[in-house]
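Researcher: I'm comparing several assemblies side by side, and this is the next one on my list. It has 685 residues spread over two chains. Same procedure as the others: predict the full complex and return the structure.
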Amino acid sequence: MKQYDRGNLYHQMLRVRLFEEMIQDLWDKGLISGEMHLGIGEEGVIIGVLDHFKDGDALLLDHRSTPALVARGVSLRSMLLEMFGSKNGLCAGQGGHMHMFSPEHLAASSGIVGASGPLAAGFALAAQHLRPGRVAVAFFGEGAMNQGMLMESMNLAVAWKLPVIFVCKDNNWAITTRRSWVTGGNLLERAHSFGLSARQVRGTDVTAVWKAARKAVAEARRGHPAFLLARCSHKEGHFLGDPLLLMLRKPIQQMVQIAPGLVKAFFHRHGAAIATRMQSVGTIMSNLGVMGAGHWFMNQDPLVRARRRLDPDFLQRTESEVRQEMEHARTSAQNEWGKECAQWQS
Amino acid sequence: MAVMNFADAIEKALSTAMATDPRIVIFGEDVHMLRRNLYVQFGPKRVRPTPISESAFLGAAVGAAMAGLRPVVEIMMIDFIGVAFDAILNQASKVETFSGGKWQVPMVVRASCGGGYGDAGQHEQNLWGMLAGIPGLAVVVPSDPADAAGLMLSALTYPGPVVYLEHKLLSDYWLEYLGRGNRPTVQFDIPAAGARGEVPEPLTPIPLGQARVLLSGSDLTIATLGVSVHRVLVVASRLKSQGISVGVIDLRTVSPLDRATVISQVSTSQRLLVVDEDYRDFGLSCELAASMLEAGLNPRYARVATEGVIPYARHMEEQVLPNVERIEQAALSLMGTHF
């Protein structure tokens, strides 16, 4: 059994956090293309679960793949090069941040919501045959809980006694739609009713996640698939440039673009009754308000929480070490990428 | 005539049709935000967000259409049709035939498509060839605001299921959400005439299955659609300065496919180049080649299409998608002046 080591958990969460912040900076600078979904806020869930991993355990990821890959020890440099689009990147520049694959870590990701569920069932099936005692973990958001393929995988895992742990990172938002609008019932009960051993945990508390995951992983290793529901929040919304967050952070810039259309729609001579239109405007505004409030209440930073009980000298040492690791990876990747770009130009 | 953005033209068509046809309802992920103007104008009963459950809500659209509504169902990106393919493949497209023609499924599946902003091949596919290969399904791919509005109006009165694809390089809001994200540090090759342009007032429906001859040419005919229309027009103008007369056809819809217009142009030029942002093999470009042979024509033929899985890196993606250089080379090679 893995020993509980608060310092190490913090160290790993910090590596994830600083790597995600580095990605954010590089994305802002235009060095990374496409959508960017960051995992800032879910470090407690990722690290609390993956600390129980052994070699041969498989990792199935969603569109926020980098936190788990950092935690599993995938080369930071090769992930950065991948996001730059380098031929020397983790996937030769062909996958990018939503499609990271590392066969030696049995780690695969997908940009399709819910896709990690069936893949994890398959990796677990292979573990039954080829790697007894090993498990597969699927990470996904609570929006994915409404995806048929994920629910079907839960049933399959129970029916076939597959060594899977389904981990739901619940931030209360399906893209930019509030959970209560689109999700019926209770997610813990839903998982339980499939026959999964289901636990709920505060995802911002890495210790709580670690304890719950220890039981879940142990059960899965014995062929009893498990489910963890971990509440957390995404500081950067669904993706960088999230229109809801932009509305909150740059209200004037956004409202100038959005307001004329809304006003025109409101006063259009055809359409619903005025009371209904008022209701719609109210809903859009309250959505923004709830998002703001949701951020206020939910943004209990898992790192801030974990830091409180650690020795200041240890923190200073760890933080400087992780910063160096990140700086080194960034410099090395940027140098390599610079050389590759120079080669094209010559 | 009014000048408007591509996405605004689609919205205007929807707003116009919804005002007179109360059966039209919109649903899909995040539509209360994505279609916030229609959400305000028509209220939450007619514009409603869905769970991330494509197979449920696309299947529900089929049922709702059979039961008297005219759903416009949104699945964000056409790549995600994979999750809900049964609704299209085995339900929507089959009902009319299976019911002996007694029951139709009037619905529009609206989705973004296309690449050019570095999101890789799980979010940048076009898939119109695969979809048009399903009998009973219409597939629409507009290339500018006027067509976007006119084709949407027709889709909203079409008797059967229609897949309506809006390219992300033409729809400003999609590119903003998925590619730019409020960053001044990234650039995209947006065809200006496709992203913004004149739209007739009042809006006029454009029938599905009617291609548009943008240029008549005696030496070479290029058949294309969507964003590629604009890449092809650049090539046509370059070749004109070299004395080559290039005809350009905007197909507008993959199904129904306006074979007659292509046949008529190619029978004069005897050369056909198909520029198709969808996959090369087993798709639209093959279908047009077969159509020429079936019509008794034997033109010189070439195609520029998407080669394999679309990679993430911008510089690799650019080579895989049809670009001006590839189109020009293929055209010159058909003229026998370049290898």
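Model: For your comparison table: The mean pLDDT of chain B is 97.
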